[in-house]
Specification:
α5 links the parallel β10 and β11. With 392 residues, the chain is α/β, with parallel strands linked by helices. The protein folds into two domains: 166 residues, 2-Layer Sandwich (VC0802-like); 211 residues, Rossmann fold (3-Layer(aba) Sandwich). The strands form two sheets. Strands 1, 2, 3, 4, 5, 6, 7, 8 and 9 form a nine-stranded mixed beta sheet that branches. Strands 14-13-10-11-12-15 form a six-stranded mixed beta sheet, sandwiched between helices. Helices cover 40% and strands 20% of the residues. It contains 14 helices and 15 strands. The structure holds adenosine-5'-triphosphate and magnesium ion. Adenosine-5'-triphosphate binds next to α5, β11 and α12.
């Protein structure tokens, strides 16, 4: 019964002169997302609103599901369109509409009419009153409440008449592409996909880097990361996933450096490599799934030691989150089930029994000196052999 969706967007509407840029980005993200839904769609801006016309036969559920992943959308209103055949017919249509979309008819309500089509013979106040009366006649248990109605009925008088009432919540945030680009360090764990989702929600386009350590980490571990990238790309848009062969660097660190410093040194090399690829993809920041105090490598001192090698900002959207809060988001965005599949992770394979929790940067730098002989060459090979996978 719905031929059109009206898209409500909140935060982006306050952006003043930049408003049209935000709206254009939102339209483009909507078009991209709708490729995942069955049907033909026409997305357009009109008078500070975004509408989606759907050709007959489209899949309603798939469409709503796709739209619920477009950042910047606050509400999705399914609209019934009917021909303008006068106020009497409109009254019938409105009653029929309420009959169809609500099971109960005992709520308080308010009618909101807009009249873009100025030739409509009644003004919007008159239409509100007329339709209110018709609704009360049809549903005697309903009542008007103009202050806090339980149900809002919107009527837009255009060449055709638009009727809508339900607002399906969108994800909020800002349209991807309006706030720069970042490079996500994406592992197969629970946290980093959530971190990617969070930063993307603020309008940031994403690429990703995954450190793979064959044969210590299997093809299936890599596939898991690809699958996670696919799931979050429904929100973030296309991702270029860089799969770095990290084995030789890890083995070399293992060979040369004190084992209680392995994780920190390894993570410093991850950051250096991630920053290199950030340069290649014009990303302005790195993003990780770190959360303060979660593990030994995420103490204040460890984060500082890892951070020290980076020259661009490192964003850690989960820094203040408890594990359960992260898990809740992972479940909401559908990455959780994939994240908990039991494949090995390159960080856990080379991990020491008692890693340092308060590393001293100077001590770490000193240990890294022991890598001087071969590390440049190993880095060069790692960068050159990196595989880039396009995730849509
Ligand atoms: P996650 O759930 O994201 O794996 P975690 O709690 O297991 O996080 P760590 O393994 O210490 O934490 O990793 C911290 C962060 O470092 C991750 O969130 C991720 O951003 C990055 N990271 C760790 N391992 C890798 C890897 N193999 N490839 C890419 N990034 C990684
Ligand atoms: Mg991990």
């Amino acid at each position: 019964m719905f031929q059109t969706f009206l898209i409500k967007y909140g935060e982006i509407a306050i952006k003043g002169k930049n408003r049209h840029l935000f709206e254009d980005a939102l339209v483009s993200q909507i078009c991209h997302a709708l490729k995942r839904a069955e049907g033909e769609f026409h997305v357009y801006k009109e008078q500070g609103r975004i509408y989606i016309d759907c050709a007959p036969g489209y899949d309603y559920d798939e469409t709503v599901e796709a739209l619920q992943k477009v950042f910047g959308i606050v509400g999705i209103c399914p609209v019934m369109k009917c021909a303008d055949e006068g106020i009497d017919k409109l009254g019938d249509d409105v009653v029929e509409f309420l009959n169809q979309i609500y099971e109960r008819h005992d709520q308080s309500f308010k009618v909101f009419t807009r009249r873009p089509k100025k030739s409509f013979p009644l003004d919007s106040m008159e239409v509100n009153a007329e339709l209110g009366g018709r609704i009360l006649d049809a549903f005697p248990d309903m009542r008007v409440d103009v202050h806090e109605p339980q149900l809002q009925l919107y009527v837009e008088l255009r060449d055709e008449i638009f009727i809508y009432s339900k607002v399906i919540p969108g994800p909020g945030g800002m349209p991807v592409g309006t706030n720069g680009r970042a490079m996500l360090l994406l592992s197969g764990g629970i946290d980093s996909p959530v971190a990617g989702y969070m930063i993307s929600k603020r309008g940031v386009s994403l690429d990703a880097v995954y450190f793979h350590a064959p044969p210590y980490t299997s093809e299936r571990a890599k596939q898991k990361v690809i699958d996670l990238a696919k799931i979050i790309s429904a929100y973030t848009g296309p991702i270029r996933l860089h799969v770095v062969n990290f084995t030789d660097i890890q083995l070399y660190i293992y060979d040369k450096c004190p084992h209680d410093e392995l994780t920190i040194i390894m993570r410093r090399y991850m950051m250096r490599i991630a920053e290199y690829f950030a340069g290649e993809t014009h990303a302005q920041a790195l993003v990780t799934g770190e959360s303060l105090g979660q593990v030994a490598s995420q103490t204040m001192q460890s984060l500082a030691a890892t951070n020290e090698v980076c020259t661009i900002p490192v964003f850690r959207p989960l820094i203040g989150f408890d594990k359960q809060e992260i898990v809740d988001i992972a479940q909401k965005i559908d990455t959780f089930e994939t994240s908990i599949l039991p494949f090995e992770d390159c960080c856990t394979i080379f991990v020491a029994k008692h890693p340092v929790t308060k590393p001293n940067v100077n001590v770490i730098k000193c240990s890294e000196k022991k890598l001087d002989e071969k590390i440049d060459e190993l880095m060069r090979v790692a960068l050159e052999t990196t595989e880039v996978i396009r995730i849509e």
